[in-house]
Amino acid sequence: MEKERNKQLKYIANDVRVGIIDAVYSAKSGHPGGSLSSADIFTYLYFEKMNIDPKNPDWEARDRFVLSKGHTTPGYYSALAHRGYFPVEDLKTFRHTDSYLQGHPDMKGIPGVDMSSGSLGQGVSVAAGIALSAKIRNKSYRIYALMGDGESQEGQIWEAAMFASHYKLDNLCLFLDLNGLQIDGKITDVMNPTPHDTKFEAFGWNVITVSAHDFEQLDNAAKAAETCKGKPTVIICNSVKGKDVSFMENQASWHGAAPNDAQYETAIADLKKVRAEI
Fold this sequence. Notes:
The protein is an alpha/beta fold and about 280 residues long. It has one domain (about 5-275): Rossmann fold, CATH 3.40.50. Helix content is about 45%, strand content about 10%. The chain has helices at about 5-25, 30-50, 75-85, 125-135, 155-165, 185-190, 195-200, 215-225, 260-275, and strands spanning about 65, 145-150, 170-180, 180, 185, 205-210, 235-240. A 5-stranded parallel beta sheet has the order 1-2-3-7-6, with helices on both faces. The radius of gyration is 17 Å and the shape is globular.
Protein backbone atom coordinates (compact mmCIF):
# COMPACT_ATOMS: atom_id res chain seq x y z
CA MET A 1 0.00 0.00 0.00
CA GLU A 2 1.33 3.41 -0.96
CA LYS A 3 2.23 5.77 1.88
CA GLU A 4 -0.20 8.44 0.70
CA ARG A 5 -3.08 5.97 0.58
CA ASN A 6 -2.17 4.70 4.04
CA LYS A 7 -2.28 8.29 5.31
CA GLN A 8 -5.66 8.88 3.66
CA LEU A 9 -7.11 5.82 5.37
CA LYS A 10 -5.83 7.06 8.73
CA TYR A 11 -7.67 10.34 8.21
CA ILE A 12 -10.84 8.48 7.26
CA ALA A 13 -10.55 6.22 10.30
CA ASN A 14 -10.22 9.31 12.47
CA ASP A 15 -13.43 10.68 10.93
CA VAL A 16 -15.11 7.34 11.61
CA ARG A 17 -14.06 7.52 15.26
CA VAL A 18 -15.44 11.05 15.59
CA GLY A 19 -18.70 9.74 14.16
CA ILE A 20 -18.72 6.98 16.78
CA ILE A 21 -18.37 9.47 19.62
CA ASP A 22 -20.97 11.80 18.13
CA ALA A 23 -23.48 8.95 17.73
CA VAL A 24 -23.11 7.49 21.20
CA TYR A 25 -23.03 10.91 22.87
CA SER A 26 -26.17 12.02 21.02
CA ALA A 27 -27.98 8.80 21.92
CA LYS A 28 -26.77 8.83 25.54
CA SER A 29 -26.25 5.11 25.05
CA GLY A 30 -24.41 2.67 22.81
CA HIS A 31 -21.18 0.72 22.51
CA PRO A 32 -18.11 2.90 21.88
CA GLY A 33 -15.32 0.60 23.08
CA GLY A 34 -15.60 -2.15 20.48
CA SER A 35 -16.63 0.33 17.79
CA LEU A 36 -13.39 2.25 18.30
CA SER A 37 -11.28 -0.92 18.31
CA SER A 38 -12.92 -1.96 15.01
CA ALA A 39 -12.83 1.45 13.32
CA ASP A 40 -9.75 0.71 11.25
CA ILE A 41 -11.23 -2.60 10.08
CA PHE A 42 -14.46 -0.89 9.02
CA THR A 43 -12.41 1.80 7.28
CA TYR A 44 -10.21 -0.67 5.44
CA LEU A 45 -13.12 -2.77 4.22
CA TYR A 46 -15.41 0.05 3.13
CA PHE A 47 -12.84 2.47 1.73
CA GLU A 48 -10.19 0.15 0.33
CA LYS A 49 -11.14 -3.47 -0.04
CA MET A 50 -14.78 -4.24 -0.75
CA ASN A 51 -16.31 -4.02 -4.20
CA ILE A 52 -19.36 -1.86 -3.43
CA ASP A 53 -21.37 1.06 -4.77
CA PRO A 54 -23.03 3.41 -2.25
CA LYS A 55 -25.25 4.76 -5.04
CA ASN A 56 -26.55 1.23 -5.65
CA PRO A 57 -26.57 -0.52 -2.23
CA ASP A 58 -28.39 -3.59 -3.60
CA TRP A 59 -26.02 -4.13 -6.52
CA GLU A 60 -26.05 -7.88 -7.13
CA ALA A 61 -22.30 -8.17 -7.77
CA ARG A 62 -21.27 -6.33 -4.60
CA ASP A 63 -19.16 -7.90 -1.89
CA ARG A 64 -21.20 -8.70 1.23
CA PHE A 65 -20.50 -7.77 4.85
CA VAL A 66 -21.98 -9.22 8.03
CA LEU A 67 -21.43 -7.50 11.38
CA SER A 68 -21.67 -10.43 13.77
CA LYS A 69 -21.01 -8.27 16.83
CA GLY A 70 -24.05 -6.23 15.96
CA HIS A 71 -23.90 -3.89 18.95
CA THR A 72 -20.92 -2.03 17.41
CA THR A 73 -23.22 -0.15 15.05
CA PRO A 74 -21.68 3.25 15.98
CA GLY A 75 -18.56 2.16 14.08
CA TYR A 76 -20.49 0.41 11.32
CA TYR A 77 -22.87 3.32 10.72
CA SER A 78 -20.08 5.86 10.84
CA ALA A 79 -18.18 3.99 8.12
CA LEU A 80 -21.32 3.66 5.99
CA ALA A 81 -22.15 7.35 6.41
CA HIS A 82 -18.67 8.55 5.53
CA ARG A 83 -18.67 6.18 2.53
CA GLY A 84 -21.80 7.90 1.25
CA TYR A 85 -24.65 5.52 2.03
CA PHE A 86 -26.49 8.15 4.07
CA PRO A 87 -25.76 11.62 5.54
CA VAL A 88 -23.06 11.83 8.21
CA GLU A 89 -25.31 14.24 10.10
CA ASP A 90 -27.79 11.39 10.63
CA LEU A 91 -25.32 9.73 13.01
CA LYS A 92 -26.54 12.19 15.63
CA THR A 93 -30.00 10.57 15.45
CA PHE A 94 -28.56 7.19 16.49
CA ARG A 95 -30.95 5.21 18.70
CA HIS A 96 -33.51 8.02 18.73
CA THR A 97 -37.12 6.88 18.67
CA ASP A 98 -37.84 8.25 15.19
CA SER A 99 -34.48 7.34 13.64
CA TYR A 100 -33.77 4.58 11.11
CA LEU A 101 -30.36 4.09 12.77
CA GLN A 102 -31.33 1.50 15.34
CA GLY A 103 -29.01 0.10 18.00
CA HIS A 104 -28.46 -3.01 15.88
CA PRO A 105 -28.20 -3.31 12.08
CA ASP A 106 -31.46 -3.49 10.13
CA MET A 107 -31.08 -4.67 6.53
CA LYS A 108 -34.62 -3.54 5.68
CA GLY A 109 -34.24 0.06 6.78
CA ILE A 110 -30.58 1.07 6.56
CA PRO A 111 -28.81 1.55 3.20
CA GLY A 112 -25.70 -0.61 2.87
CA VAL A 113 -26.58 -3.13 5.59
CA ASP A 114 -26.52 -6.65 4.14
CA MET A 115 -27.69 -8.52 7.22
CA SER A 116 -29.66 -7.73 10.38
CA SER A 117 -27.65 -8.91 13.38
CA GLY A 118 -27.24 -8.54 17.10
CA SER A 119 -27.64 -11.95 18.72
CA LEU A 120 -24.01 -12.75 19.45
CA GLY A 121 -22.58 -15.85 17.84
CA GLN A 122 -24.93 -15.99 14.87
CA GLY A 123 -23.32 -13.69 12.33
CA VAL A 124 -20.54 -16.04 11.25
CA SER A 125 -23.14 -18.71 10.47
CA VAL A 126 -25.05 -16.23 8.31
CA ALA A 127 -21.87 -15.16 6.52
CA ALA A 128 -21.00 -18.80 5.86
CA GLY A 129 -24.48 -19.38 4.45
CA ILE A 130 -24.13 -16.40 2.12
CA ALA A 131 -20.72 -17.70 1.04
CA LEU A 132 -22.12 -21.17 0.29
CA SER A 133 -24.97 -19.62 -1.69
CA ALA A 134 -22.45 -17.69 -3.78
CA LYS A 135 -20.51 -20.89 -4.44
CA ILE A 136 -23.63 -22.80 -5.49
CA ARG A 137 -24.67 -20.01 -7.85
CA ASN A 138 -21.14 -19.45 -9.22
CA LYS A 139 -21.02 -15.85 -8.03
CA SER A 140 -17.63 -14.15 -7.78
CA TYR A 141 -18.35 -11.70 -4.95
CA ARG A 142 -16.63 -12.19 -1.60
CA ILE A 143 -18.15 -12.29 1.86
CA TYR A 144 -16.56 -10.45 4.78
CA ALA A 145 -17.61 -10.68 8.42
CA LEU A 146 -16.51 -9.09 11.68
CA MET A 147 -16.87 -10.82 15.02
CA GLY A 148 -15.85 -9.97 18.58
CA ASP A 149 -13.49 -11.94 20.80
CA GLY A 150 -16.03 -12.32 23.61
CA GLU A 151 -18.39 -13.61 20.96
CA SER A 152 -16.01 -16.50 20.30
CA GLN A 153 -17.21 -17.98 23.61
CA GLU A 154 -20.41 -18.93 21.78
CA GLY A 155 -20.65 -22.51 20.55
CA GLN A 156 -22.34 -21.51 17.30
CA ILE A 157 -19.14 -19.75 16.23
CA TRP A 158 -17.37 -23.08 16.15
CA GLU A 159 -20.24 -24.84 14.41
CA ALA A 160 -19.94 -22.18 11.71
CA ALA A 161 -16.17 -22.66 11.62
CA MET A 162 -16.67 -26.39 11.01
CA PHE A 163 -19.32 -25.70 8.35
CA ALA A 164 -17.19 -23.17 6.46
CA SER A 165 -14.19 -25.50 6.41
CA HIS A 166 -16.26 -28.50 5.35
CA TYR A 167 -17.65 -26.64 2.35
CA LYS A 168 -14.27 -25.09 1.49
CA LEU A 169 -15.63 -21.55 1.59
CA ASP A 170 -12.55 -19.72 0.34
CA ASN A 171 -14.79 -16.78 -0.59
CA LEU A 172 -15.33 -16.09 3.13
CA CYS A 173 -12.98 -13.81 5.09
CA LEU A 174 -13.64 -13.36 8.79
CA PHE A 175 -12.10 -10.57 10.86
CA LEU A 176 -11.78 -11.24 14.61
CA ASP A 177 -11.51 -8.08 16.72
CA LEU A 178 -9.27 -9.28 19.55
CA ASN A 179 -9.25 -6.46 22.11
CA GLY A 180 -9.28 -8.82 25.09
CA LEU A 181 -12.27 -7.25 26.85
CA GLN A 182 -16.01 -7.79 26.99
CA ILE A 183 -18.80 -6.24 29.03
CA ASP A 184 -17.90 -8.17 32.20
CA GLY A 185 -14.12 -7.78 31.99
CA LYS A 186 -11.23 -9.70 30.43
CA ILE A 187 -12.29 -12.46 28.05
CA THR A 188 -9.74 -14.76 29.67
CA ASP A 189 -11.43 -14.27 33.06
CA VAL A 190 -15.04 -14.59 31.89
CA MET A 191 -14.60 -17.70 29.70
CA ASN A 192 -11.19 -18.08 28.15
CA PRO A 193 -11.55 -18.70 24.38
CA THR A 194 -7.85 -18.43 23.58
CA PRO A 195 -5.76 -19.40 21.68
CA HIS A 196 -7.86 -18.47 18.66
CA ASP A 197 -5.19 -19.18 16.06
CA THR A 198 -4.68 -22.86 16.85
CA LYS A 199 -8.42 -23.40 17.32
CA PHE A 200 -9.28 -22.03 13.89
CA GLU A 201 -6.37 -23.95 12.37
CA ALA A 202 -7.74 -27.14 13.93
CA PHE A 203 -11.07 -26.42 12.26
CA GLY A 204 -9.31 -26.17 8.88
CA TRP A 205 -9.08 -22.41 8.42
CA ASN A 206 -6.33 -20.29 6.94
CA VAL A 207 -5.20 -18.12 9.88
CA ILE A 208 -3.46 -14.74 9.68
CA THR A 209 -2.65 -12.53 12.68
CA VAL A 210 -2.23 -8.76 12.35
CA SER A 211 -2.54 -5.47 14.18
CA ALA A 212 -6.06 -4.11 13.81
CA HIS A 213 -4.61 -0.60 13.60
CA ASP A 214 -2.10 -1.12 10.77
CA PHE A 215 -3.57 -0.68 7.29
CA GLU A 216 -0.54 -2.21 5.61
CA GLN A 217 -0.98 -5.40 7.63
CA LEU A 218 -4.75 -5.46 7.06
CA ASP A 219 -4.23 -5.05 3.32
CA ASN A 220 -1.59 -7.77 3.07
CA ALA A 221 -3.78 -10.14 5.06
CA ALA A 222 -6.90 -9.52 2.97
CA LYS A 223 -4.92 -10.02 -0.24
CA ALA A 224 -3.48 -13.27 1.12
CA ALA A 225 -7.02 -14.42 1.94
CA GLU A 226 -8.01 -13.91 -1.70
CA THR A 227 -5.21 -16.13 -2.94
CA CYS A 228 -5.91 -18.92 -0.43
CA LYS A 229 -7.93 -21.63 -2.16
CA GLY A 230 -9.97 -24.43 -0.62
CA LYS A 231 -10.41 -23.00 2.87
CA PRO A 232 -11.89 -19.93 4.59
CA THR A 233 -9.63 -17.31 6.15
CA VAL A 234 -9.78 -15.70 9.58
CA ILE A 235 -7.75 -12.55 10.16
CA ILE A 236 -7.10 -12.24 13.89
CA CYS A 237 -6.79 -8.52 14.60
CA ASN A 238 -5.04 -7.54 17.82
CA SER A 239 -6.71 -4.30 18.85
CA VAL A 240 -7.14 -1.74 21.61
CA LYS A 241 -10.64 -1.35 23.00
CA GLY A 242 -11.55 2.34 22.96
CA LYS A 243 -8.68 3.10 20.56
CA ASP A 244 -7.57 6.77 20.40
CA VAL A 245 -9.82 8.04 23.21
CA SER A 246 -7.56 8.32 26.24
CA PHE A 247 -9.99 7.45 29.03
CA MET A 248 -11.69 4.65 27.05
CA GLU A 249 -8.60 2.71 26.00
CA ASN A 250 -8.37 -0.79 27.52
CA GLN A 251 -11.33 -0.13 29.82
CA ALA A 252 -14.09 -2.74 29.89
CA SER A 253 -16.40 -0.17 31.47
CA TRP A 254 -16.60 1.58 28.07
CA HIS A 255 -17.95 -1.51 26.35
CA GLY A 256 -21.47 -0.11 26.55
CA ALA A 257 -21.59 3.40 28.01
CA ALA A 258 -22.00 6.94 26.71
CA PRO A 259 -19.76 9.91 27.57
CA ASN A 260 -21.14 12.85 29.51
CA ASP A 261 -20.60 16.42 28.33
CA ALA A 262 -17.10 16.78 29.76
CA GLN A 263 -16.04 13.33 28.56
CA TYR A 264 -17.39 14.08 25.09
CA GLU A 265 -15.23 17.20 24.87
CA THR A 266 -12.18 15.23 26.02
CA ALA A 267 -12.85 12.47 23.49
CA ILE A 268 -13.16 14.91 20.59
CA ALA A 269 -9.99 16.70 21.73
CA ASP A 270 -8.16 13.36 21.84
CA LEU A 271 -9.25 12.56 18.30
CA LYS A 272 -8.24 16.01 17.04
CA LYS A 273 -4.81 15.45 18.54
CA VAL A 274 -4.49 12.07 16.83
CA ARG A 275 -5.51 13.67 13.53
CA ALA A 276 -2.89 16.39 13.87
CA GLU A 277 -0.21 13.72 14.33
CA ILE A 278 -1.10 11.66 11.25
